[in-house]
Amino acid sequence: MEKTLRKKLAFATADIFGGGSFNIVNFLYPGFLALTIGLDTTTAGIVMLIARIWDAVIDPFVGYLSDKTKSRFGKRRIYLMVVAPFILVSMYFLFYPYQFANMNLNIIAVTTSYLLFTTAQSLIMIPYFSLASEISSDYQTRASYNSYRLGFSIFSSIICVAVPSIIIDAFPNNANLGYQIMSLSFGTIFMLSILITGLFAKEEIITPPSQEKLDLASLAKPLKIKTFRQYLGMYLMVQIAMAIMSAVFFFYVDFYFTKTATLNGVKPPIRLIAAALMFGMQIVALPFYLRMIEKKGKMFVYRFGSLIWIISAIALFFIPADGNPLHIYLLAAIMGFGISAPGLIPHAMYGDVVDVGELYLKERLDGQMSGFANFINQISQGGGVAFAMFIIGIAGFQEQIIGEPIIREQSDGAMLVIR
Q: Which of 109, 174, 211, 370 stands the most exposed, by the fewest C-beta atoms within 10 Å?
């Protein structure tokens, strides 16, 4: 039992990088490009788009490469062990404050740095995603392993939303140094977490290297399997919903839900509290859903959690803009509890889908399948947020100048001041 727990922890540790790095880049990198490097927002957006496209394109190839790999450390763990140091290096250069006299050189430098980081990220996450199907041959045990992994990922996401900014803000007179210390600190943590998984999370299912030739027909081979296509569709919908929720929920709190404490001008940290409750409940719910999987099965859990998520999201429509913050906190907690299930199930089901593919194709193509799954993730993250913001624009959202107060008269005649 103790040995199994150590292995579960070792396996889950690498997703400290998976969950954390995503939030660091999403929350900090656009502002870093604009305020530190000096790129205009359009150019910064193009840089990030290029990196997204590159990441999506190479994912199937990385998966194909890992399927053909043969080493004493298996097909997947060897990538984690070899590429881990490059995560530290690429993280440092990703947030390096380039200050060339020619802005075009700055653009080339940040684009190259971002491409190196996304390449290293793919070389880690595709084999790691594949390892999830090989870590155990037992249906229930794989679900348990992936629940630990998701818990580590969510916890890392919480930390990496708050702490990097705290580090940077600790150097108010030298933001460049703040970014460098932040990137080195988290780069080191990410590197060590990946190495732990590579060294100690030994796979249970061992298969010979794939003999497939590199061509489009071979890369698309997993798409012949109906179960895998259905899995990709489910994963696509979950990731799109996650991306929209991440963007729109906090957008909703910041720009629609305006009830604030006005005592001495103090504004309660509604967004921070809501985020903590939402992410925290996702972790708390995992043991509950694991037990439910054992009794009811994975698809029941997926539907159960999705229904809670849908109902709590609809409930947001009925909260007035000047309502009680406790309503937001309650819905954030309920929503987090619901999100946990559809967030867990695609990871827990992945090994089962690979098993089906092995029966159909007579070989395991974990890497190629994980490449397609990560490709879907990249598409959904970019497309989901863009679609959500497009809809908000159509709805007539108008930007507000930061710091400009809004004065709203309430039904009792009192004036509510929002800043």
A: 211
Task: Name the helix (H) or strand (E) containing 119.
Answer: helix 103-134
Structure tokens at 368: 């190629």
Tokens matching residue 112:
């190259």
Q: Give the whole-angstrom CA distance, residue 301 versus residue 374.
A: 23
**Nearest residue to 183 (alpha-carbon basis) of 52, 45, 89:** 89
Q: Can you tell me the distance from the alpha carbon of 12 to that of 271, in angstroms, rounded to the nearest whole number?
A: 28
Alpha-carbon gap, residue 196 to 194, rounded angstroms: 5
**Contact by Cβ (8 Å): 195, 80:** yes
What one-character DSSP code corresponds to residue 99? -
Q: Are 371 and 315 in contact (CB under 8 A)?
A: no
Instruction: Kindly tell me if the per-residue pLDDT of 388 is higher than 80.
Output: no
Using the structure block, give the residue that is written with the tokens 């929503």.
335
The domain limits of the chain are: 2-398+405-418
End-to-end CA distance of the chain: 54
CATH top class, domain 2-398+405-418: mainly alpha
Identify the burial level of 382 via C-beta atoms within 10 angstroms of its C-beta, where 0-12 means exposed, 13-18 middle and 19 or more buried: middle
Cβ–Cβ under 8 Å, residues 134 and 76: yes
To the nearest 10 degrees (0 to 180), the angle between helices 15-31 and 77-94 is: 20
Estimate the crossing angle of helix 298-315 against helix 226-255, to 10 degrees: 20
Give the H or E element holding residue 303.
helix 298-315
Q: In terms of C-beta density within 10 A (0-12 exposed, 13-18 middle, 19 or more buried), how is residue 324 classed?
A: exposed
Enumerate the β-bridge partners of residue 409. Answer: 415
Residues 6+ apart with CB under 8 A from 216: none
- CA atoms of 14 and 124, how far apart (whole Å): 9
Q: pLDDT tens digits for 314-343? A: 998 888 877 788 888 899 999 999 999 998
Q: What is the pLDDT of residue 261?
A: 42
**DSSP code of 208?**
P
CB half-sphere exposure, 404, CA atoms < 13 A: 5
Q: Which residues pair with 406 in a beta bridge?
A: 418
Spatial neighbors of 270 by CB under 8 A, at least 6 apart, are 253, 257, 259, 260, 325, 328
Q: What is the CA radius of gyration of the chain?
A: 22
Closest to 381 measured CA to CA, from 239, 238, 251, 235? 239
What's the pTM? 0.77
